[in-house]
Write a structure and sequence with these properties.
The protein has helices at residues 28-37, 44-54, 68-76, 174-187, 211-225, 240-247, 266-272, 281-289, 313-326, 352-362, and strands at 21-22, 79-80, 85-91, 97-102, 110-117, 143-147, 151-153, 168-171, 196-201, 232-236, 256-260, 299-305, 330-336, 367-370. With 390 residues, it is an alpha/beta fold. The strands form three sheets. It has a ten-stranded mixed sheet, with helices on one face. It has a two-stranded parallel sheet with strand order 1-2. Mean pLDDT is 89; it is low at 1-5, 9-18 and 123-137. It binds S-adenosyl-L-homocysteine and iron/sulfur cluster. S-adenosyl-L-homocysteine (SAH) binds next to strand 10 and strand 12.
């Protein structure tokens, strides 16, 4: 009976509405259970995981560890690997690449992913913020950062962010989030474990408003693909219930945490990030206190400098006081605002960024400047907005 029954998805929760039958996104345990339920030996699941996540095979036909008969059966029943595909590439003068990636849904939505050779991993301060110099040569990077999206668009509505203009179109599935990474690793011929690649979940969307799928993707990337969670950073606008859940994750799979602070106090923050009215700074900081940090781990506060709005000297003093008051081992990453059409802010004036950095440093706050990457191709922070494949 079972052997003749169709191979149905075990776990529908990770799948996007009307999706094709994609294998990519299931872990070894899920693949094994699913194979067993279809009357195949359980260890077929391990072979599939090996093919999808380590060998990076993209066609069922190419998974030659499976018998020909099984491959034909999968094909007959409409199964495909279904790894998200890079469909368009924009290349910056600084070596950054921005990708439009086709997802797994039948809705045809694309998602954006960014590759930054010599990127600072969202955690500059490790000496990596020197000049890029990666423009001409082919594989000249010795470390790189992939910026990953967790949703198409975003519902949070930060006033300075271009992604917000899209609204939320939909959540990405586990396979769509992890698939961005594996597609880029493949394109760049990255040898996992040998080459130093950081992940930042700082692309489109708010990861903590797609919590299950975001953490499912992290688990897949750690357990199946072999990436280290200590080389991953997730950034949140301050979704308190999400931070509380995150605090419960085991350290073996928990990425590092960055909080988009972006303002010196609640008044300004509520103006630039209306979500602050729901979860003000103190509530966010309280939730962050619940995260058990690994040794030498620090919380990152990201701070976007908006000309005249958040970049004044008195703001720097306030930020320093605020960060000290949290009592958390923390550092501040300053990001000069990246402009976008239809957004009524201005970039900080020349000198303001460096002045702000110096003021924080003088107060004893560890502070780093995030270099804008790929501004010319709309790949920099807050610029992702499907510009556009149609
Ligand atoms: N939604 C998450 C992660 C994605 S945004 C979050 O907001 O934290 C990643 C970072 O880019 C955030 O710190 C955000 O404040 C910042 N950002 C958004 N728009 C920006 C812009 N136009 N210029 C510079 N940074 C921006
Ligand atoms: Fe969403 Fe982050 Fe942009 Fe805010 S900054 S709108 S949370 S993507």
């Amino acid at each position: 009976m079972t052997t003749n029954s169709q191979l149905v998805p075990l776990d529908a929760k990770n799948r996007v509405g009307g999706s094709l039958r994609s294998l990519f996104g299931m872990n070894t345990a899920e693949l094994s259970e699913w194979m067993a339920a279809a009357g195949e030996p359980k260890w077929r699941g391990s072979q599939l995981a090996e093919a999808l996540y380590r060998q990076r095979i993209v066609e069922v036909e190419g998974i030659t560890t499976l018998s020909k008969a099984l491959r034909q059966r999968l094909d007959r029943e409409g199964w495909q690997v279904g790894r998200p595909r890079i469909v368009q590439v924009f290349t910056s003068v600084d070596g950054t690449e921005r990708y439009l990636v086709h997802g797994q849904g039948l809705d045809g939505l694309t998602v954006e992913t960014v590759w930054m050779p010599e990127g600072d991993g969202g955690e500059a301060g490790d000496g990596s913020e020197g000049p890029a110099g990666a423009a001409e040569a082919s594989k000249v990077w010795d470390r790189a950062t992939i910026c990953v999206s967790s949703q198409v668009g975003c519902a949070v509505n930060c006033q300075f962010c271009l992604t917000a203009k899209l609204g939320l179109q939909r959540n990405l599935s586990v396979g769509e989030i992890a698939g961005q990474v594996v597609a880029v690793l493949d394109r760049q011929s990255v040898e996992v474990g040998k080459e130093r690649v950081n992940l930042v979940f700082m692309g489109m969307g708010e990861p903590f408003l797609n919590y299950e799928n975001f953490m499912g993707a992290v688990r897949l990337l750690v357990e199946e693909v072999g990436l280290s969670p200590q080389r991953m950073t997730v950034s949140t606008s301050g979704i308190v219930p999400g931070i509380e859940r995150f605090a419960e994750e085991p350290p073996e799979i928990r990425p590092k945490l960055a909080i988009s602070l972006n303002a010196p106090n609640d008044e300004v923050r509520s103006e630039v990030m209306p979500i602050n009215r729901k979860w003000p700074i103190e509530a966010v900081v309280d939730a962050v206190r619940g995260v058990r940090l690994r040794s030498r781990e620090r919380i990152t506060f990201e701070y976007v400098l908006l000309g005249g709005v958040t970049d004044r000297p008195e703001h720097a003093a306030e930020v320093a006081r605020l960060v000290r008051r949290t009592g958390l081992p923390a550092k501040v990453n300053l990001i000069a605002w990246n402009p976008g059409p239809g957004i009524a802010y201005t970039m900080p004036e020349s000198g303001a960024v460096e002045g702000f950095r110096r003021a924080l440093a003088a107060e004893g706050v560890p502070v780093y400047l995030r270099r804008p990457r790929g501004r010319d191709i709309y790949a920099a922070c807050g610029q992702l907005k499907r510009t556009v494949e149609e």
